Backbone:
């Protein structure tokens, strides 16, 4: 985690790291909101077996990313944190791990086309955001 004011990185625990399959499952849960093992399995591309999904859901729950409730004999899973909070955490982790904590370096990487060309609308939105932040800083 990171302090929003000065972006000082608090080291993440190893349990914050997700495998590709774990990320697929968490993304499916964000899309679905709540889901059973079978619903998760149906929502991801090239899914592993039912028991593999069930095992991965258990791992994700132990890592603290998801939780479950019981609906009769079925477990229904859902994310523990909002998508917005998870996105912020992932972004801050990327900022620290790949851009030395520099937001300028991160934006430079986005703007130089390394992540694909920005649309005129996206450029306008970024420009508006920069102006809004400048006004708030004064």
Residues:
């Amino acid at each position: 985690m990171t302090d929003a004011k000065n972006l000082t990185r608090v080291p993440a625990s190893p349990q914050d790291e997700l495998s590709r399959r774990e990320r697929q499952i968490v993304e499916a849960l964000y899309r679905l909101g709540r889901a059973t093992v079978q619903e998760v399995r149906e929502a991801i591309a090239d899914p592993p077996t039912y028991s593999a999904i069930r095992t991965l859901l258990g791992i994700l729950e132990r890592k603290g990313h998801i939780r479950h409730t019981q609906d009769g004999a079925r477990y229904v899973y859902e994310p523990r944190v909002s998508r917005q909070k998870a996105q912020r955490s992932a972004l801050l982790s990327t900022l620290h791990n790949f851009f030395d904590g520099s937001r300028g370096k991160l934006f430079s990487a986005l703007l130089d086309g390394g992540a694909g060309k920005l649309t005129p609308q996206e450029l306008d939105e970024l420009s508006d955001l920069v102006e809004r932040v400048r006004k708030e800083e004064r």
